[in-house]
Every structure is written in C-alpha cells, then in structure tokens.
Amino acid sequence: MEGAPAVPRLPPHDPNTPALSVVDMHTGGEPLRIVLAGCPEVVGPTLLAKRRYMRQHLDHVRRRVLLEPRGHRDMYGAVLVRSELPDAHLGVLFLHNAGYSSMCGHAVLALGRFALDFGLLPAPPAGAREARVNIHCPCGLVAVFVACEDGRSCGPVRFHSVPAFVLASDLIVDVPGHGRVMVDIAYGGAFYALVSAGKLGLDVCAAKTRDLVDAASAVTTAVKAQFEITHPESEDLAFLYGTILTDGKDAYNEEPTTNICVFADEQVDRSPTGSGVTARIALQYHKGLLGLNQPRTFKSSATSSVFTGSAVREAKCGDFKAVIVEVSGQAHYTGTANFTVEDDDPLKDGFLLT
User: Fold this and answer.
1) What is the pTM for the complete model shown?
2) Which residues are catalytic?
3) Strands 130-137 and 140-149, sheet pairing
4) Same domain for 265 and 310?
5) What is the domain-level CATH number for residue 287?
6) pLDDT digits (tens, 9 = 90+) for 13-70
7) Domain span including residue 152
8) Are 132 and 144 in contact (CB under 8 A)?
9) From residue 276, how far is each of 104, 194, 273 by CA, in Å?
C-alpha cells in the first residue's frame, strides 16, 4: 500500500532466542504445526532417546509452539529430527498439549506431503504417480505413500502402520459416574481405550463435545488406575494415550462408523484419528468382525471428516498376533509463521486455561 510504513521481517525480540519458523497443515481438520527452524538440536543415539531428551531439556519449545498465546489447547506439533534407521527419510517427534506421543496418524499423512514437497527425499522418477516416504516415528518405521504429479504432492496420502494389536478385550473397569463399563485396549502405534459411547449413555454423533470429553476422560482415568499398560518391545511405548468413543458399529459395513478421540490433557482430535483407526481395525480383526483387505470408512464426530482403513496383512509384535493397517486421508497446507520471544514476557513459554 502506498505510503504504508516498512514492516521489518521480524518484530523486536530476544536476539539470543531464535525465531521458531513453522509450516501449518491440517488433516481432516486436525492441525499440525511443523517446526522448520529455531529448535535447538535434539540429542540422542535413538529416536526414543531424542524424545526423552526433548521432554527433559527442550520442553519450552513445545510449549511455545503449541500453547497460548501462539497456539491453543488442541494444537498439535511435530519436530523433525535425524533417524538412526538407514531406511528412514526423516525422524519425527510428536507434540501435544501435555507432552509427547508415540504415533500420530494425521500427522504422518500431512508429513508425507510435506517431506515430498520440501525435498526431504530424492525426487520421484519422471511420471511417478506415487512417492514412498519412510518416516521414523517413536513407535517405529512407518511407510507413507503420497499421490504425486510432476514430483509434487497431490490428492490423498496413505500409510502402513507398525504392527497393531489388542492388549485386552472385554475388560471391565469401574468408571465414576457410569458404573462398570466394558472396554477394549488396543495399540495402533499408541494405546487407546475403546468403548461404545452408548455404554456411557451418550450418542457419539449427537452429544455435545463437552459431554463426550468428560466421559472419555473418566474412562481414561479409570483404565490408568485399574489396568497396567505394557508393550512387548519398549517401556517408552507403555502408556495409555487416550480414549476413543465409538458408535458401536464394529462389524464390517460399507457405511461409515463414527468416533471421537480424546487424548493427552483432554485434547480433542478433529480428524477420525489415524492411530485410532489403526487400533480400531486391529480390534475388529481380532474379534473376527473384519477380514483382511476389507476397507472401512471412519468418520469424525467433531468435523465429519473421513479416513479409510483396512488390515492389509498379519504380523507379530512380541507374542501378540497383530496386523499391519493401511490408513488413507487428505492433508492440506494452511500457512506459515515465525514466532518470536521477548525476554521480559512473563508468558513467553505459553499457558493453558484450566
């Protein structure tokens, strides 16, 4: 605009604190904030060691990127790191409002596009209609397949999960305010309690989000208190991430099945939840309700966005019978930003309203 004052590239900020540069995306409405620059080096010989290091030494980065005033309670993030695996194109640490996840399907779908578009892997051959991106997540190596044209991403993305399995089925827990409730515990890169919302007196498709959050949180708290979560390969993965409330339609059907995922500190996933879809398919296959290569559509009760998924082959995880699950969805870019810090700002490291 003629006569407008010149705007500096960055506002006044602490020169000893690098600006955090991010790219924002969403998958099915669930946000992802990818840190491009400004995060100090995350040290560790393995990805899980890097996750521990970031939690202990760099948690201020997570808080600054995700929490208010730069973010909000339900913001989700990713920090890209080097992987020790020779086949990985990149490693990633997942950030949420209470800490660090072991897997995030919506983020993996978005990161597949991002990795291809930002040159984090060799350009696909001329004429290729799909590019493979190997993303090392804390739960393991995840293969991501990105639709592309002329070397750029376009259209849907799909991933093949780590081995997904059922830890406990038909488990009875005492849930305050709801009595004895039957739940299942399944792993899709992260552990979830799975329960039909109807068992809690709610309709997942019509209830208010606050009521669903309260019920899911009560289940999470009850399961954590009454059942020990174990993982056959790593103690770092042995924790309950959250609760998924479903419409109870677990038997195979061509119609969508609806769910909502509440994880971390009452964070609500806007998408159908990629690792949650993985866990639900593992449970349905375990109970004989779904066969191999039978695709199902999963719908978010929050936004009505959809993912598709299917069990593509059997696998093992320790002594557990498991399946590899394919999940497909659509990710979109929403913008970029540079976040700065002023040293005298008492809220520079972020906050959450309780």
Assistant:
1) 0.96
2) 104
3) antiparallel
4) yes
5) 3.10.310.10
6) 888 888 999 999 999 999 999 999 999 999 999 999 999 999 999 999 999 999 999 9
7) 20-161+333-339
8) yes
9) 9, 9, 5
